[in-house]
Amino acid sequence: MVQGxxxxxxxxxxxxxxxxxxxxxxxxxxxxxxxxxxRRAINSGKNRMEVWPVMSSAQDEPTMFETLFEFKxxxxxxxxxxxxxx
Length: 86
Fold this sequence. Notes:
By secondary structure, this protein is an alpha+beta fold. The chain is 29% helix and 27% strand. It has a single domain, classed as Alpha-Beta Plaits.
């Protein structure tokens, strides 16, 4: 799954984590430069066969979030929500 998505336009990184309270609960975080690029990559025919088996086992929760604030290398950056854009 990671190899195919990493070749798509706008890909930044994929992180995976496990809950220390419940070892059966995992989280997969994908970072993209835009929601549009993420959706196109996930829904493309070449990635669908690898991505959808993983996503089909996901809990029924929102699957995409936008970054509103980031603190990195000693600096904080705020981002405008796409919900505020026309």
